[in-house]
Request: fold
Amino acid sequence: MTRAAKADPHTDPDHVSDHTLRDLAGYNLRRTSQIMQADLAKTLEPLGLRMITFAALVLIVDNAGVRQTRLANALAIERSNLVLIVDDLEQRGLIQRTQVPTDRRAYALVPTDAGRDVYARALNAVHAHEAALLNNFEASEIATLISLLKRVEAPRA
Reply:
């Protein structure tokens, strides 16, 4: 019997149906997220970035002078975890910590020229990654998708 003939889920012992789960938004979001994150990891790897370091770098470039505490809040991560991310970006010469003149305990994060360069290259690569993964969608559908996803997050913001 050929593999194609065994495609019937009732006769193929290797087939696992997830039809019940496919009616759940969360399940579909998780599966889509896994696909997008795996591809994004491959996209960012040549630039020496991970998804979290990319997100941190983008927020620092877009919000030059942001304090570490506010960055941790924006990324929804613990401050202790942020220290490792900031250390990585700083050691690579992509950002600098500068003391906040009004609060000696606080550090403002600013991008370096190298950081802005990596930011631009990474952003271009991520836009290309999304375009490739979403190539079956019209621009208006992508805008609707993003709008709908933001609505899921909105009650928690």
